[in-house]
Write a structure and sequence with these properties.
Length: 88
């Protein structure tokens, strides 16, 4: 099973754990399965059309991933909410 790693506020919504072993053949399948396992995550990563929200960054083994990106059982998927800020 692939490992999906969430951070920041998504970690709290996903049961307080960073790493989740999830089955699926694509990024979208993994994310839908994560939402099924942790309903509080629903709507935060994928929108109502099943697309990754634009403020969420997804990386598969360190490379940018999209919904259709294929994943294997040994892959690591990092889900990172975008952060912004500025100088004071």
């Amino acid at each position: 099973m692939a490992v999906v790693r969430v951070s920041g506020p998504l970690k709290r919504l996903a049961g307080g754990r960073s790493d989740h072993q999830v089955e699926g053949a694509t990024v979208a399948e993994l994310l839908r399965e994560l939402e099924r396992a942790h309903p509080a995550v629903g709507g935060w990563i994928l929108d109502e059309r099943g697309l990754i929200r634009r403020h969420i960054n997804v990386f598969v083994n360190g490379e940018r991933g999209r919904e259709a990106t294929a994943v294997g059982p040994d892959d690591r998927i990092d889900i990172l909410p975008a952060i912004s800020g500025g100088a004071v």
